[in-house]
Amino acid sequence: MNPHNSRTASLIESFHGRLIVSCQAYPGEPMRNPETMAQVARSAEIGGAAAIRCQGLADISAIKGRVKVPVIGLWKEGEDGVYITPTLRHARACIMAGADIVALDATDRPRPDGLTLRQTARALKDDGAVLMADCGCIEDVDNAVDAGFDIISTTLSGYTGARARTEGPDYELLSQMLERHPDIPVICEGRVHTPDDARRVMDMGAWAVVVGTAITHPMTITSWFSDAVRS
């Protein structure tokens, strides 16, 4: 067996059937600090997270130095179009910062550096990278699998215009992915706000589930309670 393939399989297996916690803060927020995010990530690890998803080179580096579980890294630049690890340069920088897995926008929208998704994935796989595809629809998923991604995810469902945004997880897309690609690890990410949501996607057959806002974003969590109290 190829040693790289063996390491990749072991890495991905480590969070099979488990919770992945996304530790991210938006620009301008009080918690937008690498050390703060590292503390949040370590707390999530102690609480049972089997992997951490995080964004930005400083956060990736700080978190990698604090946790023992795999780190899924990405780099957001801009707000429109392809902004999740938008170029080959961004992806390689995430790996250099310490990401065990790099997450990329896997839609068919134009990428800033002019490369196609397939060209980007091929270059990264030649580097030995482990890749997670953030998809917005089943066509994105098919393209990502064809391009050689190791993991496929529902992350961008409802954010690209390809599918309507669901109130909770996109169970329909998840079901399509599981049926269409039973041999590829499928991760559910996006609007997983309760333990019941997380349990449901796991019961459907997801490889793992990513929870972010409901665990690591106190501004939003507080607003949920504040709105409920006011109403």
TrEMBL record:
InterPro entries: Aldolase_TIM (IPR013785), NanE (IPR007260), RibuloseP-bd_barrel (IPR011060). One of its GO terms (molecular function) is N-acylglucosamine-6-phosphate 2-epimerase activity. It comes from the Bacteria. Keywords: Carbohydrate metabolism, Isomerase. The keyword Isomerase applies. It is an enzyme of class 5 (isomerase). It catalyses: an N-acyl-D-glucosamine 6-phosphate = an N-acyl-D-mannosamine 6-phosphate. Transmembrane segments: none annotated. Pathway: Amino-sugar metabolism; N-acetylneuraminate degradation; D-fructose 6-phosphate from N-acetylneuraminate: step 3/5. Converts N-acetylmannosamine-6-phosphate (ManNAc-6-P) to N-acetylglucosamine-6-phosphate (GlcNAc-6-P). This is Putative N-acetylmannosamine-6-phosphate 2-epimerase.
